[in-house]
Specification:
The complex is a heterodimer of chains A (136) and B (276).
Chain A: E1 9-11, H1 14-30, H2 35-54, E2 59-67, E3 73-81, H3 89-92, H4 106-113, E4 116-121, E5 127-134
Antiparallel strand pairs in A: 1-2, 2-3, 3-5, 4-5
Chain B: H1 2-5, H2 7-14, H3 16-30, H4 37-57, H5 60-79, H6 84-105, H7 108-150, E1 155-158, E2 161-167, H8 172-189, E3 193-200, H9 206-221, E4 225-229, H10 233-242, E5 250-251, H11 255-265
Parallel strand pairs in B: 2-3, 3-4, 4-5
Antiparallel strand pairs in B: 1-2
The chains are: A alpha+beta (136), B alpha/beta (276).
Chain lengths: 136, 276
Protein backbone atom coordinates (compact mmCIF):
# COMPACT_ATOMS: atom_id res chain seq x y z
CA UNK A 1 0.00 0.00 0.00
CA UNK A 2 1.33 3.37 -0.94
CA UNK A 3 0.15 6.89 -0.27
CA UNK A 4 -0.82 8.81 -3.42
CA UNK A 5 2.42 9.58 -5.28
CA UNK A 6 3.49 13.19 -5.24
CA UNK A 7 4.65 15.28 -8.12
CA UNK A 8 8.39 14.80 -8.69
CA UNK A 9 10.45 17.77 -7.56
CA UNK A 10 12.76 18.98 -10.33
CA UNK A 11 16.40 19.45 -9.37
CA UNK A 12 18.02 22.06 -11.56
CA UNK A 13 19.59 24.51 -9.12
CA UNK A 14 20.87 24.82 -5.58
CA UNK A 15 17.49 26.17 -4.46
CA UNK A 16 15.85 22.95 -5.63
CA UNK A 17 18.03 20.99 -3.21
CA UNK A 18 16.44 23.03 -0.41
CA UNK A 19 12.98 22.31 -1.84
CA UNK A 20 13.70 18.57 -1.92
CA UNK A 21 14.88 18.77 1.67
CA UNK A 22 11.68 20.49 2.76
CA UNK A 23 9.50 17.98 0.90
CA UNK A 24 11.37 15.11 2.57
CA UNK A 25 11.13 16.70 6.01
CA UNK A 26 7.37 17.14 5.62
CA UNK A 27 6.90 13.56 4.41
CA UNK A 28 9.13 12.14 7.15
CA UNK A 29 7.25 14.02 9.86
CA UNK A 30 3.93 12.86 8.40
CA UNK A 31 5.15 9.24 8.35
CA UNK A 32 5.92 9.52 12.06
CA UNK A 33 9.71 9.23 11.92
CA UNK A 34 11.57 10.29 15.06
CA UNK A 35 13.47 13.56 15.04
CA UNK A 36 16.79 11.75 14.63
CA UNK A 37 15.47 9.64 11.74
CA UNK A 38 13.93 12.72 10.14
CA UNK A 39 17.28 14.48 10.28
CA UNK A 40 19.02 11.40 8.85
CA UNK A 41 16.72 10.99 5.86
CA UNK A 42 16.71 14.74 5.22
CA UNK A 43 20.50 14.79 5.23
CA UNK A 44 20.69 11.73 2.97
CA UNK A 45 18.21 13.39 0.60
CA UNK A 46 20.32 16.53 0.65
CA UNK A 47 23.44 14.57 -0.36
CA UNK A 48 21.69 12.65 -3.12
CA UNK A 49 19.90 15.71 -4.48
CA UNK A 50 23.21 17.51 -4.70
CA UNK A 51 24.79 14.52 -6.45
CA UNK A 52 21.92 14.56 -8.93
CA UNK A 53 22.56 18.25 -9.54
CA UNK A 54 26.38 18.25 -9.63
CA UNK A 55 27.23 14.88 -11.18
CA UNK A 56 23.99 14.00 -12.96
CA UNK A 57 23.57 17.46 -14.49
CA UNK A 58 20.15 17.88 -12.88
CA UNK A 59 17.16 15.58 -12.62
CA UNK A 60 14.25 15.09 -10.27
CA UNK A 61 13.29 13.58 -6.95
CA UNK A 62 10.10 11.70 -6.20
CA UNK A 63 9.13 11.72 -2.54
CA UNK A 64 6.49 9.29 -1.34
CA UNK A 65 5.18 7.83 1.86
CA UNK A 66 5.15 4.05 1.89
CA UNK A 67 3.90 1.30 4.16
CA UNK A 68 5.46 -2.16 4.32
CA UNK A 69 3.73 -5.53 4.72
CA UNK A 70 3.73 -5.19 8.49
CA UNK A 71 2.07 -1.80 8.35
CA UNK A 72 5.19 0.15 9.19
CA UNK A 73 5.24 3.66 7.72
CA UNK A 74 8.22 5.10 5.92
CA UNK A 75 9.47 7.55 3.34
CA UNK A 76 10.89 6.58 -0.01
CA UNK A 77 12.71 8.97 -2.30
CA UNK A 78 13.81 8.19 -5.83
CA UNK A 79 16.41 10.46 -7.42
CA UNK A 80 16.71 10.21 -11.16
CA UNK A 81 18.94 11.90 -13.72
CA UNK A 82 19.90 11.45 -17.36
CA UNK A 83 23.55 12.20 -16.70
CA UNK A 84 26.69 10.30 -17.65
CA UNK A 85 26.07 7.44 -15.18
CA UNK A 86 28.65 5.96 -12.82
CA UNK A 87 31.35 3.88 -14.54
CA UNK A 88 32.69 2.18 -11.38
CA UNK A 89 30.06 1.65 -8.69
CA UNK A 90 32.49 0.10 -6.20
CA UNK A 91 34.79 3.08 -6.50
CA UNK A 92 31.88 5.50 -6.16
CA UNK A 93 30.84 3.72 -2.97
CA UNK A 94 34.35 3.99 -1.52
CA UNK A 95 34.61 6.18 1.55
CA UNK A 96 36.40 9.44 0.81
CA UNK A 97 36.60 8.97 -2.95
CA UNK A 98 35.18 11.73 -5.11
CA UNK A 99 35.29 12.56 -8.79
CA UNK A 100 34.54 16.17 -7.92
CA UNK A 101 35.66 18.51 -5.15
CA UNK A 102 33.51 17.29 -2.25
CA UNK A 103 34.46 15.24 0.78
CA UNK A 104 33.59 11.96 -0.94
CA UNK A 105 31.18 11.00 1.81
CA UNK A 106 27.84 11.79 0.19
CA UNK A 107 26.93 8.52 -1.48
CA UNK A 108 28.39 6.24 1.21
CA UNK A 109 26.96 8.46 3.94
CA UNK A 110 23.51 8.42 2.37
CA UNK A 111 23.68 4.62 2.25
CA UNK A 112 24.46 4.46 5.97
CA UNK A 113 21.83 7.06 6.88
CA UNK A 114 18.98 5.12 5.27
CA UNK A 115 17.46 1.67 5.77
CA UNK A 116 17.27 0.71 2.12
CA UNK A 117 19.54 1.92 -0.62
CA UNK A 118 19.32 0.99 -4.26
CA UNK A 119 21.64 2.30 -6.96
CA UNK A 120 20.79 1.78 -10.60
CA UNK A 121 23.18 3.24 -13.13
CA UNK A 122 24.40 2.76 -16.65
CA UNK A 123 27.26 4.58 -18.34
CA UNK A 124 25.64 7.16 -20.61
CA UNK A 125 22.19 6.13 -19.43
CA UNK A 126 21.73 8.14 -16.26
CA UNK A 127 21.50 7.15 -12.63
CA UNK A 128 18.64 6.37 -10.27
CA UNK A 129 19.14 6.17 -6.53
CA UNK A 130 16.25 5.03 -4.36
CA UNK A 131 16.40 5.26 -0.59
CA UNK A 132 13.88 4.33 2.09
CA UNK A 133 13.72 5.10 5.80
CA UNK A 134 11.23 3.28 8.02
CA UNK A 135 9.66 4.58 11.20
CA UNK A 136 10.79 2.63 14.24
CA UNK B 1 -9.37 50.69 -29.73
CA UNK B 2 -12.28 53.13 -29.41
CA UNK B 3 -13.67 52.63 -32.92
CA UNK B 4 -13.89 48.86 -32.46
CA UNK B 5 -15.93 49.07 -29.29
CA UNK B 6 -18.76 51.10 -30.67
CA UNK B 7 -21.15 53.78 -29.56
CA UNK B 8 -23.74 51.69 -27.74
CA UNK B 9 -21.24 50.73 -25.02
CA UNK B 10 -20.22 54.37 -24.71
CA UNK B 11 -23.86 55.25 -24.18
CA UNK B 12 -24.16 52.68 -21.45
CA UNK B 13 -21.04 54.10 -19.82
CA UNK B 14 -22.72 57.51 -19.87
CA UNK B 15 -24.86 56.32 -16.98
CA UNK B 16 -21.91 56.83 -14.71
CA UNK B 17 -23.68 56.49 -11.38
CA UNK B 18 -25.23 53.11 -12.11
CA UNK B 19 -22.28 51.41 -13.86
CA UNK B 20 -19.57 52.85 -11.65
CA UNK B 21 -21.67 52.13 -8.57
CA UNK B 22 -22.03 48.47 -9.52
CA UNK B 23 -18.32 48.24 -10.42
CA UNK B 24 -17.32 49.67 -7.05
CA UNK B 25 -19.69 47.25 -5.33
CA UNK B 26 -18.19 44.22 -7.12
CA UNK B 27 -14.61 45.25 -6.44
CA UNK B 28 -15.29 46.02 -2.78
CA UNK B 29 -16.68 42.49 -2.39
CA UNK B 30 -13.58 41.10 -4.11
CA UNK B 31 -11.06 42.75 -1.80
CA UNK B 32 -13.00 41.73 1.30
CA UNK B 33 -12.83 44.92 3.27
CA UNK B 34 -9.11 45.49 3.11
CA UNK B 35 -9.73 48.70 1.22
CA UNK B 36 -12.72 50.83 2.11
CA UNK B 37 -15.49 51.39 -0.39
CA UNK B 38 -14.59 55.03 -0.45
CA UNK B 39 -10.99 54.34 -1.51
CA UNK B 40 -12.22 51.92 -4.16
CA UNK B 41 -14.65 54.56 -5.44
CA UNK B 42 -11.88 57.16 -5.74
CA UNK B 43 -9.56 54.74 -7.57
CA UNK B 44 -12.18 53.38 -9.92
CA UNK B 45 -13.76 56.78 -10.48
CA UNK B 46 -10.51 57.96 -11.95
CA UNK B 47 -10.17 54.85 -14.11
CA UNK B 48 -13.80 55.13 -15.21
CA UNK B 49 -13.33 58.65 -16.49
CA UNK B 50 -10.24 57.60 -18.43
CA UNK B 51 -11.96 54.57 -19.95
CA UNK B 52 -14.83 56.77 -21.07
CA UNK B 53 -12.51 59.31 -22.61
CA UNK B 54 -10.54 56.65 -24.46
CA UNK B 55 -13.59 54.81 -25.76
CA UNK B 56 -15.80 57.76 -26.64
CA UNK B 57 -13.30 60.26 -27.95
CA UNK B 58 -10.40 58.02 -28.90
CA UNK B 59 -8.29 60.22 -26.65
CA UNK B 60 -4.67 59.06 -26.89
CA UNK B 61 -3.50 60.84 -23.76
CA UNK B 62 -6.38 59.27 -21.80
CA UNK B 63 -5.24 55.84 -23.01
CA UNK B 64 -1.72 56.50 -21.73
CA UNK B 65 -2.97 57.88 -18.41
CA UNK B 66 -5.31 54.93 -17.97
CA UNK B 67 -2.47 52.44 -18.35
CA UNK B 68 -0.24 54.39 -16.00
CA UNK B 69 -3.02 54.56 -13.40
CA UNK B 70 -3.69 50.82 -13.71
CA UNK B 71 -0.01 50.01 -13.30
CA UNK B 72 0.11 52.19 -10.20
CA UNK B 73 -2.88 50.43 -8.69
CA UNK B 74 -1.58 46.93 -9.38
CA UNK B 75 1.85 47.86 -8.02
CA UNK B 76 0.34 49.05 -4.76
CA UNK B 77 -1.91 45.94 -4.58
CA UNK B 78 1.11 43.68 -5.10
CA UNK B 79 3.06 45.47 -2.37
CA UNK B 80 0.14 45.31 0.05
CA UNK B 81 0.02 41.54 -0.46
CA UNK B 82 -3.25 41.20 -2.35
CA UNK B 83 -3.64 37.97 -4.29
CA UNK B 84 -3.46 38.03 -8.11
CA UNK B 85 -7.18 37.44 -8.50
CA UNK B 86 -8.07 40.13 -5.99
CA UNK B 87 -5.99 42.48 -8.10
CA UNK B 88 -7.34 41.37 -11.47
CA UNK B 89 -10.96 41.52 -10.32
CA UNK B 90 -10.63 45.30 -10.02
CA UNK B 91 -10.47 45.46 -13.79
CA UNK B 92 -12.57 42.49 -14.87
CA UNK B 93 -15.51 43.48 -12.69
CA UNK B 94 -16.14 46.35 -15.10
CA UNK B 95 -17.25 43.80 -17.69
CA UNK B 96 -19.83 42.39 -15.38
CA UNK B 97 -21.09 45.84 -14.44
CA UNK B 98 -21.57 46.76 -18.10
CA UNK B 99 -22.99 43.36 -19.00
CA UNK B 100 -25.67 43.65 -16.35
CA UNK B 101 -26.77 46.96 -17.86
CA UNK B 102 -27.10 45.36 -21.29
CA UNK B 103 -28.93 42.44 -19.76
CA UNK B 104 -31.43 44.91 -18.39
CA UNK B 105 -31.92 46.54 -21.82
CA UNK B 106 -31.53 43.33 -23.83
CA UNK B 107 -30.39 44.67 -27.20
CA UNK B 108 -28.52 42.77 -29.90
CA UNK B 109 -26.28 45.62 -31.07
CA UNK B 110 -25.13 46.15 -27.53
CA UNK B 111 -24.22 42.47 -27.19
CA UNK B 112 -22.20 42.55 -30.41
CA UNK B 113 -20.32 45.59 -29.19
CA UNK B 114 -19.91 44.06 -25.78
CA UNK B 115 -17.63 41.38 -27.26
CA UNK B 116 -15.22 44.04 -28.48
CA UNK B 117 -15.49 45.83 -25.17
CA UNK B 118 -14.77 42.56 -23.36
CA UNK B 119 -11.59 42.16 -25.41
CA UNK B 120 -10.60 45.69 -24.47
CA UNK B 121 -11.11 45.05 -20.75
CA UNK B 122 -9.19 41.77 -21.03
CA UNK B 123 -6.26 43.63 -22.49
CA UNK B 124 -6.31 46.07 -19.56
CA UNK B 125 -6.63 43.16 -17.15
CA UNK B 126 -3.66 41.33 -18.60
CA UNK B 127 -1.55 44.44 -18.32
CA UNK B 128 -2.57 44.79 -14.68
CA UNK B 129 -1.56 41.21 -14.16
CA UNK B 130 1.84 41.65 -15.77
CA UNK B 131 2.58 44.68 -13.63
CA UNK B 132 1.42 42.76 -10.59
CA UNK B 133 3.77 39.82 -11.15
CA UNK B 134 6.69 42.06 -12.11
CA UNK B 135 6.23 43.91 -8.82
CA UNK B 136 6.00 40.67 -6.83
CA UNK B 137 9.20 39.41 -8.42
CA UNK B 138 10.90 42.65 -7.49
CA UNK B 139 9.69 42.28 -3.90
CA UNK B 140 11.01 38.70 -3.74
CA UNK B 141 14.39 39.67 -5.20
CA UNK B 142 14.69 42.50 -2.66
CA UNK B 143 13.83 40.18 0.19
CA UNK B 144 16.34 37.53 -0.91
CA UNK B 145 19.04 40.16 -0.92
CA UNK B 146 18.02 41.50 2.48
CA UNK B 147 17.96 37.99 3.91
CA UNK B 148 21.46 37.27 2.71
CA UNK B 149 22.69 40.36 4.53
CA UNK B 150 20.52 39.89 7.60
CA UNK B 151 21.31 36.26 8.08
CA UNK B 152 25.06 36.61 8.30
CA UNK B 153 25.94 38.89 11.18
CA UNK B 154 29.21 38.66 13.07
CA UNK B 155 28.85 39.94 16.63
CA UNK B 156 31.28 40.64 19.43
CA UNK B 157 30.57 38.42 22.44
CA UNK B 158 33.49 39.56 24.59
CA UNK B 159 36.81 41.27 24.15
CA UNK B 160 38.63 39.02 21.70
CA UNK B 161 35.68 36.68 21.16
CA UNK B 162 33.42 36.91 18.10
CA UNK B 163 30.12 35.14 17.60
CA UNK B 164 28.79 34.01 14.23
CA UNK B 165 25.17 32.83 14.59
CA UNK B 166 24.19 30.95 11.45
CA UNK B 167 20.50 30.55 10.63
CA UNK B 168 19.08 28.74 7.63
CA UNK B 169 20.70 27.01 4.74
CA UNK B 170 24.45 27.26 4.43
CA UNK B 171 25.25 27.28 0.72
CA UNK B 172 28.32 28.49 -1.13
CA UNK B 173 27.07 32.08 -1.46
CA UNK B 174 26.23 32.30 2.26
CA UNK B 175 29.53 30.74 3.25
CA UNK B 176 31.39 33.24 1.13
CA UNK B 177 29.61 36.15 2.84
CA UNK B 178 30.11 34.64 6.30
CA UNK B 179 33.78 33.99 5.66
CA UNK B 180 34.45 37.48 4.32
CA UNK B 181 32.59 39.19 7.17
CA UNK B 182 34.26 37.02 9.79
CA UNK B 183 37.78 37.48 8.44
CA UNK B 184 37.31 41.23 8.18
CA UNK B 185 35.98 41.40 11.75
CA UNK B 186 38.98 39.36 12.89
CA UNK B 187 41.30 41.97 11.41
CA UNK B 188 39.25 44.87 12.82
CA UNK B 189 38.96 43.50 16.34
CA UNK B 190 42.09 41.35 16.64
CA UNK B 191 39.98 38.57 18.15
CA UNK B 192 41.58 35.33 19.31
CA UNK B 193 38.37 33.30 19.30
CA UNK B 194 35.36 32.93 17.05
CA UNK B 195 32.29 30.93 18.01
CA UNK B 196 30.33 29.66 15.00
CA UNK B 197 26.85 28.75 16.20
CA UNK B 198 24.86 26.38 13.97
CA UNK B 199 21.74 26.03 16.16
CA UNK B 200 19.70 27.57 13.37
CA UNK B 201 21.06 25.37 10.57
CA UNK B 202 18.40 22.72 9.92
CA UNK B 203 20.62 20.05 8.34
CA UNK B 204 24.35 19.54 8.27
CA UNK B 205 25.31 17.55 5.22
CA UNK B 206 28.76 17.08 3.68
CA UNK B 207 28.54 20.35 1.78
CA UNK B 208 27.66 22.36 4.87
CA UNK B 209 30.43 20.58 6.79
CA UNK B 210 32.91 21.33 4.05
CA UNK B 211 31.93 25.01 4.10
CA UNK B 212 32.29 25.11 7.89
CA UNK B 213 35.71 23.43 7.73
CA UNK B 214 36.91 25.91 5.11
CA UNK B 215 35.75 28.87 7.22
CA UNK B 216 37.49 27.46 10.29
CA UNK B 217 40.68 26.85 8.30
CA UNK B 218 40.70 30.38 6.92
CA UNK B 219 40.23 31.86 10.40
CA UNK B 220 42.95 29.61 11.75
CA UNK B 221 45.38 30.89 9.14
CA UNK B 222 44.80 34.32 10.65
CA UNK B 223 45.61 33.06 14.12
CA UNK B 224 42.07 32.69 15.42
CA UNK B 225 40.71 29.57 17.05
CA UNK B 226 37.18 28.65 16.04
CA UNK B 227 34.67 26.84 18.20
CA UNK B 228 31.59 25.34 16.58
CA UNK B 229 28.55 25.37 18.86
CA UNK B 230 24.88 24.51 18.69
CA UNK B 231 25.28 20.89 17.64
CA UNK B 232 21.97 19.26 18.49
CA UNK B 233 21.71 15.53 19.28
CA UNK B 234 20.12 14.57 15.96
CA UNK B 235 22.74 16.57 14.05
CA UNK B 236 25.54 14.91 16.04
CA UNK B 237 24.22 11.43 15.21
CA UNK B 238 23.82 12.30 11.55
CA UNK B 239 27.33 13.72 11.31
CA UNK B 240 28.77 10.54 12.83
CA UNK B 241 26.77 8.30 10.49
CA UNK B 242 27.79 10.37 7.49
CA UNK B 243 31.42 9.93 8.52
CA UNK B 244 32.34 13.60 8.67
CA UNK B 245 35.40 14.30 10.81
CA UNK B 246 35.77 17.66 12.46
CA UNK B 247 39.32 16.76 13.44
CA UNK B 248 40.79 18.88 16.21
CA UNK B 249 38.14 21.60 15.93
CA UNK B 250 36.50 22.25 19.30
CA UNK B 251 32.74 21.70 19.19
CA UNK B 252 30.17 22.38 21.92
CA UNK B 253 26.49 21.63 22.37
CA UNK B 254 25.45 25.17 23.21
CA UNK B 255 26.60 28.72 22.62
CA UNK B 256 26.94 29.16 26.40
CA UNK B 257 29.38 26.23 26.62
CA UNK B 258 31.38 27.62 23.73
CA UNK B 259 31.56 31.06 25.32
CA UNK B 260 32.62 29.56 28.65
CA UNK B 261 35.33 27.60 26.87
CA UNK B 262 36.60 30.64 24.96
CA UNK B 263 36.58 32.79 28.12
CA UNK B 264 38.50 30.17 30.09
CA UNK B 265 40.98 29.73 27.25
CA UNK B 266 41.57 33.50 27.10
CA UNK B 267 42.18 33.58 30.85
CA UNK B 268 38.98 35.34 31.92
CA UNK B 269 37.62 34.15 35.27
CA UNK B 270 33.95 34.60 36.02
CA UNK B 271 33.24 35.30 39.68
CA UNK B 272 29.78 35.34 41.19
CA UNK B 273 29.18 38.73 42.77
CA UNK B 274 28.21 39.01 46.45
CA UNK B 275 25.08 40.96 45.59
CA UNK B 276 23.83 38.41 43.07
Amino acid sequence: MTAPPQEPVPITSGDDVVRVRQAVRTAAAAAGLSLVDQTKIVTAASELARNTLVYGGGGHARVERVTDARGRAGVRIAFGDDGPGIPDIDLALTEGWTSGSGLGLGLTGARRLTDEFHLDTEVGGGTTVTVTKWAR
Amino acid sequence: MSGAVGTRISEILEDREAVLGRWVELVTEGVRGRITEREVRTELGELYGLVQRELADGDESAAGELRAALQEISRSRARQGFSPSETAVSVFALKQAVHERIGAAGEETAYAQFIAFSGYVDELGLMTFETYSATREQVIADQAEQLLELATPVVKLWDGILGVPLVGTLDSARTQVVMETLLQMLVDTGSQFAVIDITGVPAVDTEVAQHLLKTVMAARLMGTECVISGIRPQIAQTIVTLGIEFGDIVTKASLADALAYALAASGVRLVEGAGA
